[in-house]
Amino acid sequence: MELFKYLSPERIDVLENQALRFTQANYLNDPFEHMPFVSKIIDEAYTKKLYDENFKPIIQQIANRKLCIDDIPEEFREAIPDDVKEEVFSYSIGEALNLIPGFHPNNLINLFAMEGQELGLDYSSLLKESWNKKFGVLSLTKSCDNLTMWSHYSRSHEGFVIEFDSSNEYFNRGKNKGGAVWKLQEIKYSKVRPKLTLIDSKLGENELLEFLIENILLTKSIHWEYEEEVRLIQNLSDSDKTLTYNEQEIHLFGFDSSAVKSVFLGVNIHDNLKNKVLQTLTEHRYNHVNIYQGELSKSEYKVEFKSMTTS
């Protein structure tokens, strides 16, 4: 697979420092990023399983015991009128839970299986905020001559594009581990936002994580299809370097210079940047890299790249 990264002029640091940023959802340019439609937290089958396995046996053991003051949370004890205390503590725990069904563990658990809209909660935004702190995304593409991409991500053709070797270890660390992170995965484009439940009883633990990553990190609107995006996802806690810039937390992951195959210079690249890029590529670590200069086609709406040397 051919693999390219479009970069703006100031991102010469990628070549100089051999490091790529894995970006949190909040800083990506799509407001729907990491935003499937999360209807509820867990499904009904899972809530029943959770109750039957963890709460029901305990309740069965204590259901016939008389309710006592220690069973009432401290903040609620003073709210019980003196003239009804005797009656309140005449009930067994089982009877008390049936009298106040809202406090029954089964009903409390079932709240998680209710649609977020019924509870006035936006599960999708809560999910995005949570995953924003955990995962970073490296966005790549399969084409180096997309005019729109050059305009959007390389400052109107003033920047450059790096071609990476997709077979390099950097892009294949997770390939044989069976995990959902640190392996190249293509974006799936959709007309509608995925609707999902965060904990689905039909999926095992590993299947669930892959299902969530596919629907949260690897699905975008069909409007972005022209980007032909390929992503690498990583846990931000594993970054090689973290710094702050413009109040953003930047997570960098280093790569070996052997991962770079070619560099394509934009048709509007300024001489100052061009010289910096060429100077960096004359270093021994990059002596294997091919360099191309972009030129406007004389007969078509396309950019043609001509091979050049650093000498």
From TrEMBL:
<protein>
    <submittedName>
        <fullName>DUF2971 domain-containing protein</fullName>
    </submittedName>
</protein>
<dbReference type="InterPro" id="IPR021352">
    <property type="entry name" value="DUF2971"/>
</dbReference>
<dbReference type="Pfam" id="PF11185">
    <property type="entry name" value="DUF2971"/>
</dbReference>
